[in-house]
Structures are given as structure tokens and as C-alpha cells.
Design brief:
The complex is a heterodimer of chains A (about 220) and B (about 110). Chain A has about 220 residues and is an alpha+beta fold. Helix content of chain A is about 35%, strand content about 25%. Chain A is built from seven helices and nine strands; from the N terminus they run E-E-H-H-E-E-H-H-E-E-E-H-E-H-E-H. In chain A, a hairpin with a 2-residue loop joins strand 1 and strand 2. Chain B is mainly beta. Helices cover about 10% and strands about 30% of the residues of chain B. The N and C termini of chain B lie far apart (about 35 Å). The mean pLDDT of chain B is about 85. The chains are: A alpha+beta (about 220), B mainly beta (about 110).
Chain lengths: ~220, ~110
């Protein structure tokens, strides 16, 4: 048993046996068993299987019948041991690409904020624009005298900020003014992680009330209006 | 939610029951005969001893403790007790785990 740990802090165990003139070091399938038990079935997903083989081959380790193994001369046992250990840790770390290790999405954070502030919320509201285009608004909030449509603007990368702003502007422009006035259309910018240019904000302010995630007071005020 | 059952191909007395939420989050896992080291909360260790993982926001799946509600000696009853602790009524029957295929280790 080694002091090195899998992501769930179970100890990594390696197994050494002699095979003819060679020494074979392996994990006896424990690494893939760990991934399988965490919902990642490597053999059921060709992409994952490719990744495992690729990670292991970097250390000269083979994946054989679900076992990470490397063989060599007895005098190289120490090197074999650490090569298999390195491969085991690399493969086990694939679990971090799993959804369970991702932070909550922005919409989930906003949903939690609305719930904490005891606002009645309907999620994923379908609305058809004047052009006939269907839209799905993440939140319809009833906190004040009139309901408010809340659209989150949370681009994944800096390069997507402008596109997200344009898409949001297009959507609000297409939604019926008579039914949803400007004060009932809120664009919530996720400015915690990415900057929004003043020009983009000005564009959105023509068709909606713009709020920033870093200014929760103004958001509460806009929703309660 | 689903339950994943995995067993070591070296030693069929070492196996794991895992309760998965949303297909990938291990909210509970019972490791029979496994080895574990707590790092976040305390320095408790298990060497080839049964321990149970419990999900928390702080530790995720890394926290383990010695369960007091797993008292059975056979696979089936341990599974039932694991499900009971999770609030799951279980009528599934798990057959005996297959033995390690002969020659599997010889080829490695």
C-alpha cells in the first residue's frame, strides 16, 4: 500500500509479481474500478478509453484487461513502481473532468440567490417573439407588483461577451413591448468573472434594465419594482 | 440515482457499493476491505478495513468514517444494510461475485 491517494483518498495499492525474468508492476484494475464506481465506465466510452491509454503510454504503462501494468528487469523495479504509480494518479485524475467537480452554473447561482431572497420564480419560461422565434427565458420572477423576465448574460469566454450581448439584445427587441415593458425585462450580467464594455451595456440598456451580479442590491430593486 | 457495485479482481472480498446522484456524484460509498486516509478533517486511516465515504461540500467524497450499521458478513445483506442507510428499500438480489478468471494474472 502506498501513501499516495486516489481522488477520494483511498490509498493507491500496487502489486508486484515475477513473470519469468521480468518483474511486473500493476494496479490490478483498482484504478478503473475506482472510476467505474464513480460513474466513469472507461470501456463503455471510446473517448475515455483513448484518454486512459494515452495517459498511461506516456509512462510506458499498458492498459491490459482493465489493468495498468508495466514489466521490466528486476533491477528496474523501483522505476517500474513509480511509472505505474504516476500512470495510476494521472488516470484517476480523469475524475476531475467529471461534472461533480465543476462549479455550479451561473443560472444555479442566480436561482439560489432568488430563493434566498424569497422571490417567487418560474424557470425556463417559453416566450415567442414577434418574429415567431421561440425563446426560453431562464427566470420569470414575481417579487413586486408585476412579473419580471430575467435573462442571464454569462459568456464562457471573453471572446463570447459581444455575441452574448448581441443575442440578448436581439431577443429583447423581438419580445412584445406591450406585454413586457422595458422595466419588466432584466438583463443580469455575470460581471464577476468577465468584464462587459460600456458600449455593450449601453446597447442592452436600450431594451432592458441592466443589472450586474456584483451589485445585488440593484438587482433586488429591479426585480421588486 | 443509481447504485454501482464494483469488486477487486484480485480479492473478491474487497468490493464497493456506491450511491451515485446525477450519474456521477458519489453521495455515499461503502468500501469493504479497502484502505483510506482522511486528510481534511482528521488523520484517521483504514488499512484493508471497511470504511464508508460520505459526500460533503467541504470534503466532497474524500471523507470516510467507520460505519456501525454494516454488521452483516455476506455480500447480499451488506448491500441491503447499505441501501437501508441511504433510505432505499431494496429487493434486488446480488449473486455471488465471479471468481478471478484463471490466467488473468498470469498474462500480466
Amino acid at each position: 500500500m502506498t501513501p499516495y491517494l486516489y481522488p477520494d483518498h483511498d490509498n493507491i495499492e500496487l502489486f508486484v509479481r515475477e513473470k519469468g525474468d521480468l518483474v511486473m508492476v500493476s494496479d490490478l484494475g483498482e484504478t478503473l474500478r475506482y472510476l467505474d464506481g464513480a460513474g466513469m465506465d472507461v470501456y463503455a466510452n471510446p473517448s475515455l478509453l483513448y484518454s486512459v491509454r494515452r495517459l498511461a503510454s506516456g509512462y510506458g504503462v499498458l492498459l491490459d484487461s482493465g489493468v495498468l501494468v508495466k514489466g521490466g528487469a528486476p533491477e528496474t523495479a523501483g522505476t517500474l513502481f513509480f511509472d505505474v504509480l504516476s500512470a495510476t494518479k494521472s488516470v484517476a485524475a480523469m475524475i476531475y473532468g467529471n461534472r461533480s467537480f465543476e462549479p455550479a452554473s451561473f443560472n444555479e447561482e442566480v436561482a439560489e440567490f432568488l430563493q434566498t431572497n424569497q422571490m417567487a420564480v418560474e424557470r425556463n419560461v417559453p416566450i415567442t417573439g414577434r418574429s415567431g422565434t421561440p425563446y426560453v427565458i431562464p427566470f420569470q420572477v414575481r417579487a413586486g407588483s408585476v412579473p419580471v423576465l430575467l435573462k442571464t448574460v454569462s459568456p464562457r469566454t471573453r471572446g463570447r461577451v459581444r455575441d452574448n450581448v448581441n443575442e440578448t439584445h436581439r431577443m429583447w427587441s423581438d419580445i412584445e413591448d406591450a406585454t413586457w415593458g422595458k422595466s419588466q425585462r432584466v438583463s443580469l450580467l455575470n460581471d464577476d468573472s468577465l468584464p462587459f464594455k460600456s458600449s455593450g451595456v449601453a446597447i442592452l440598456e436600450r431594451v432592458s434594465t441592466v443589472c450586474r451580479w456584483t451589485e445585488p442590491r440593484s438587482l433586488r430593486a429591479a426585480l421588486a419594482a | 440515482m443509481r447504485i454501482a457495485v464494483t469488486a477487486s479482481c484480485l480479492d473478491s472480498s474487497r468490493y464497493t457499493f456506491a450511491l451515485l446522484w446525477n450519474k456521477c456524484i458519489r453521495v455515499r460509498a461503502l468500501c469493504i476491505g479497502g484502505s483510506h486516509t482522511n486528510k481534511h478533517t482528521n488523520d484517521e486511516r483504514w488499512f484493508h478495513k471497511t470504511h464508508k465515504h460520505k459526500w460533503s461540500d467541504m470534503c466532497q467524497e474524500r471523507f470516510a468514517y467507520s460505519p456501525t450499521d454494516i454488521t452483516a458478513a455476506d455480500l447480499q445483506m451488506r448491500f441491503v444494510q447499505f441501501c437501508a442507510e441511504c433510505g432505499i428499500a431494496c429487493k434486488a438480489a446480488i449473486g455471488p461475485l465471479p471468481p478471478t478468471p484463471k490466467g488473468l494474472l498470469d498474462d500480466l
